[in-house]
Design a protein that fits this description.
Length: about 300
């Protein structure tokens, strides 16, 4: 015999009592229905949460992809500029490990196309782009480090060139405007014997005590008296250039001092084998004498007054 259950509802004292009689199968059916509805509700909520997570992952990966594309474009532009600078400076091109060539840019981020894959189509797909993105990030990070190393090489080269240029004796050792060249480089008539002799430098005449300056960065290799030169200063500029300053009135430097272009090293004098106040100036490159006048890049031609033989 089927069990029956009576449900009594009493709203208030003013309303009649209501009774409902339910058979056991009916109650079971109701409970099963409620359980099914709850299960569907939980399942739908979980599905909604899952799709939201996938959508969030999708948006994150899209943003990462945009960032990578931007980074790739920036790296490509920098690489082009690096290549241009290397060409200009005559430096050897570097090998691009990303492309296998010495090219001017890196590849685009094209391992996957997010636009063709809606976030709710394939749950498995949502896990893979993050891994691929990480690989791309690592690759571009390595490329950025390589590019930084290449650019540092250029900076080091330019710094070395700057120091090399600064050491070249390219300005007049006497900067006063009333100085003039009284004797040029080469064969001349000796002011002492009247015979022809080779003059290894130029004589720049100026007032007694006019400052003599370093025409380029260098190190004082000699400062003292030396025969016919009188008071003499010798500067070693680099592995190639040496300059000589004779007949000085006095010294403003000593041996092993480091001087920069424009520093005062002494003053115009008349010491040694000399006929008047002037600076005897020599330039040697690889121990061979050069005409110093060709290195006076700041010398105005109107100041050139060479003595007649």
């Amino acid at each position: 015999m089927t069990k029956k259950y009576t449900i009594i509802i009493s709203p208030s004292s003013l309303h009649p009592i209501k009774k409902f009689t339910l058979h056991q199968p009916t109650i079971v059916l109701i409970l099963v229905s409620v359980a099914i509805l709850v299960a569907f509700g939980i399942g739908g909520a979980y599905k909604f949460y899952e799709e939201n997570q996938i959508a969030a992952k999708y948006l994150q990966v899209r943003e990462e992809k945009k960032d990578l594309e931007s980074a790739a474009e920036t790296l490509s532009d920098i690489k082009k500029k690096e290549t241009m600078i290397r060409n200009f400076l005559g430096l050897e091109q570097t090998f691009d490990e990303m492309t296998g060539t010495g090219g001017q840019g890196g590849p685009g981020v094209s391992g996957f196309d997010l636009g063709e894959h809606p976030p709710h189509e394939n749950i498995a797909w949502a896990e893979s782009p993050g891994l691929e993105t990480t690989d791309k990030e690592d690759a571009y990070f390595e490329k950025a480090l390589l590019l930084d190393k290449n650019l540092q090489e250029i900076v080091d080269f330019l710094q070395a060139q700057k120091e090399e240029f600064a050491s070249l004796p390219t300005i007049s050792p006497i900067a006063v405007p009333d100085a003039w060249i009284s004797s040029g480089y080469g064969v001349r008539k000796s002011p002492f014997t009247g015979l022809k002799e080779f003059h290894a430098g130029i004589d720049i005449s100026a007032m007694r005590g006019a400052p003599v300056i370093a025409p380029g960065t260098g190190t004082v290799s000699f400062a003292g008296k030396k025969g016919g030169y009188g008071n003499l200063v010798v500067l070693k500029h680099n592995n190639h250039y040496t300059t000589v300053y004779g007949h000085l009135l006095g010294f403003n430097v000593k041996k092993n001092d480091r001087v920069k272009r424009g520093d005062i090293i002494g003053w115009v004098g008349n010491t040694g084998r000399s006929t008047g106040y002037h600076l005897h100036y020599e330039i040697l490159k690889d121990e061979k004498h050069l005409d110093p006048f060709t290195h006076l890049l700041d010398w105005r031609k109107k100041h050139l007054y060479a003595a007649k033989d």
